[in-house]
Amino acid sequence: MIDPPTTRIPPPAFLASPAPAAVLAALPGARAVGGAVRDALTNRPVADVDVAAPFPPAEIAARLTAAGLRVHETGLAHGTVTAVLRGEPVEVTSLRRDVLTDGRHAVVEWTTDWREDAARRDFTMNALSLSATGELWDYFGGVQDLAAGRVRFVGDPATRLAEDHLRALRYFRFQARYGNGEPDPAAVAAIRASVGSLARLSVERVWMEFKRLLEASDPAGAVALMEETGVLPALLGPDSLGASRHLQALAEIGAPADPMLRFDALLTHGTAAAARRLKASNEEVQRLVARYRAGHDILPLQPGIAVGGPDDDTLRRLLAEQPPARLLDAAWLRQAVNRAWGWEGPDDAAWARFRSRIEAMPVPAFPLQGRDAIALGVKPGPEMGRLLAETRRWWWEGGCTADAQACRSRLAEMMKDIHAKALPEG
């Protein structure tokens, strides 16, 4: 079947990279697809390269192996292998048609029809394909949509969403990254009508999409649309009230484009619990827990921050209990929340001075360990732990400035008091 290209463009640089070039050479008729094509057309950095080919997966693997590439069967049931050359991976997938979909999984068959494969993709800008020589196929107006900043489903939006419920979340991610102006009304209406189906998604896929959405340079508009359509409260509950306000405020004050910091801003409280429900990593959850504690410590200090405080002793106490990065997170979030809701508090300059002091202040470390107590005659056990804890509390209350010798002296004094109390009277 003749399938003439829509247009021809100068071949983008990623096509000349060793691995994509070798894959396309080994698979006659293969084309680059997906994000690499989309990003090349918008002059964005190309991170990952995907290729589609009109062969069954076993034949693809055999041809790539014969061409000297290492092949890993990373998704063979769905027609996907990963080819690696010089440490550079390329995902290669057979052209497919959907036989059965249930909103979470699809049963597929292989095809040689490029338009049929493109028709099963989510958005028009993702249905583009590009040959090694720059021939570009655009079956559904993806180039025009990409130029206009319009994220549009291929065909009927409700049908695409019924095939895979995750596409609702992907829509907001693409809207944040590529959208410009008013969102596509048909897409928004279909998403609003399908909110109930989001409960069927695996929490791991939801978490992955949240993080990828929040990596966008400015996700506030997309998150506002998630609020308006009911998607955000459906996923995170009513505590997500004001999420887009918080994200907008973070952007206005110049906060880092950190997806975890932004996720923390989506909820008024309970972000760590929400991350646990979504099966975030232990490291991610602990970061949110530590940020909450740091925010609790910073909250009463706001009057002092506003007038140049807190003093150095107070700041050292904070740093002795919380990592500097979590204190910085908490400061950004508190400043953003104040700004979002018009609450009184330190101005932007005061918050900036406070963060500068956190970054410049050496992190204090309690100078004693168990061996110091043993050297003074304390036996290992619960009593040693209690004595060291009491010494640390004394060090902390004093502004974390006492050195090891002073702390040993304090520990020795406490031991003398204990021994004196233990002596019989008279």
From TrEMBL:
Q: Which CDD domains match?
A: NT_ClassII-CCAase
Q: Which GO terms describe its biological process?
A: tRNA processing
- Cofactors named for this entry: Mg(2+)
- Entry's SUPFAM superfamilies? Nucleotidyltransferase, Poly A polymerase C-terminal region-like
Signal sequence residues = none
One short Pfam name that applies is PolyA_pol
Does the entry feature the keyword tRNA processing, yes or no? yes
The chain positions of domain tRNA nucleotidyltransferase/poly(A) polymerase RNA and SrmB- binding read: 184-236
**Keywords per UniProt:** Magnesium, Metal-binding, Nucleotide-binding, Nucleotidyltransferase, RNA-binding, Transferase, tRNA processing
DNA-binding as UniProt keyword: no
Q: Which Gene3D superfamilies match?
A: Beta Polymerase, domain 2, cca-adding enzyme, domain 2
Family affiliation: Belongs to the tRNA nucleotidyltransferase/poly(A) polymerase family.
What protein name does the entry list?
Answer: Poly(A) polymerase
The organism of origin for this protein = Muricoccus roseus
